[in-house]
Design goal:
Four Helix Bundle (Hemerythrin (Met), subunit A), UstE-like, about 220 residues, mainly alpha, transmembrane
Length: about 220
């Protein structure tokens, strides 16, 4: 599946993603507010974080995403968000711990990861809109810290949600995400970038960490 070579609106695919994600979000709400009879503060806070994720996804798909979205991708994105919305909701249902400072820290980490992901994409989008930058590889802003800093942001906010559930089993979800990014998505993207930008990408790759700033 070649995700990066064609620019296209893909409106039907995008609305399909949003529609399916909306249904998944309603299912998460049912789990948190109707299945769980306790209706704890943790449930309300988790759903609020889900709404932030939902809003960011809307902005990403309809404002920042310029390339074609194949149907295969349109079907796999909702699967990933099922892991987030449904998976983290289920792990939260088996948690009886009251909200405390550790949870506040997880929420702050979630906000940091969300900011890194969305703001890095906005920075790149603004740069690419400039006619003088046409055909250039964006390596500025947050992308100076990692070649795929936007994916690092995803990894941070997903890890934060796992921590917020206060269930060690929930950590399997960010682990799955890391493996998918490191061994599938990033290699595909790097192949495309190397082919498109040549020497620009080679220099960028040699001087910049791949995913995690200052580490990897």
């Amino acid at each position: 599946m070649n995700l990066y070579r064609k620019k296209e609106q893909s409106r039907l695919q995008k609305w399909t993603v949003i529609g399916l994600e909306t249904l998944i979000l309603f299912l998460a709400a049912w789990l948190l507010f109707f299945v769980d009879e306790q209706l704890s503060l943790r449930n309300f806070l988790l759903f609020g974080l889900f709404l932030i994720v939902y809003g960011r996804m809307y902005v990403t798909i309809f404002y920042l995403l310029k390339r074609k979205m194949p149907w295969q991708e349109a079907m796999t994105i909702p699967v990933a968000f099922s892991l987030y919305y449904i998976g983290f909701s289920i792990f939260t249902l088996i948690t009886d711990k009251p909200v405390d400072l550790l949870d506040i820290g997880s929420i702050l980490l979630f906000l940091i990861g969300s900011f890194i992901n969305t703001y890095s994409e906005i920075q790149r989008d603004r740069w690419k809109r400039e006619p003088a930058h046409k055909g250039g590889l964006y390596t500025e802003g947050l992308f100076t810290y990692a070649m795929h800093i936007n994916y690092f942001g995803d990894l941070v906010w997903v890890t934060a949600l796992a921590l917020f559930t206060r269930s060690t089993g929930a950590l399997i979800i960010p682990i799955i995400l890391f493996c998918f990014l490191a061994w599938y998505n990033i290699p595909i993207l790097d192949t495309y970038l190397a082919d498109k930008y040549g020497e620009q990408f080679k220099r960028y790759k040699q001087s910049t960490n791949k995913l995690i700033p200052f580490l990897y």
